[in-house]
Amino acid sequence: DSNNHTHIHKYKGEYYILSHSQLLLENSHLKGGFRSLMADKLDVNEDNLVFGLTGGTRKGVEQTEPFDPSRKTSGTTMCSSADIRFINEEDPSEICSEAIADGAWIMIRNVDFSRIRQFRPEFGISFSSATGSGGVEVRLDAPDGETIAALAYRYGKDKPVSRKTMNPGDGCHDVYILLSSEGMRLKSWSF
Predict the structure, then answer these.
(1) C-alpha span between 46 and 64 (Å, rounded)
(2) What are the pLDDT tens digits along the chain (191 aa)?
(3) Looking at CB atoms within 10 Å, which of 40, 78, 116, 120 has the fewest?
(4) What is the pTM of this model?
(5) Strand 95-99 and strand 84-88: pairing?
């Protein structure tokens, strides 16, 4: 599935094969050779270097641990997305997610809300246009799931112009961060 090279990596005592597929291209309206990084568990007999799997699959691996939302996280860290592209803003080493349509979203799987004492979401937001404005919503378990935060932003303002949050409770949830307006850019986030 579009592979011409792979990599084997040992992580926390387990072996994984890293490869790429064209899932991103197949699941978007984009043209070009976009590839998605894939990881699969690899059975390895270290005594004689026998490998149980010789190529990647589309299933991938289970998440190794819940996601800690309390640390500042890149806006490009996600499990899945819709209507998002990745661009460099000012610093070429910093890539951000940009909405290519109203209602774009990124999804982070298995976010552990028991790791945070007070839910106060922070976002690094910018706009592709000097007239930009829009909102960020945080939803639980689905793009149309329960909204636990809604923040409004305007071009040139580092902080939100309005903020409404609810207590997300404890436990783990898949989290969807929605960008309401085309041209909104998500540089970072933390809860």
Answers:
(1) 22
(2) 555 677 788 888 888 888 777 666 665 556 666 667 778 888 888 888 777 765 566 677 788 889 999 999 999 999 889 999 988 877 767 789 999 999 999 999 999 999 888 899 999 998 888 778 899 999 999 999 999 999 999 888 878 899 999 988 889 999 999 999 999 999 999 99
(3) 120
(4) 0.79
(5) antiparallel
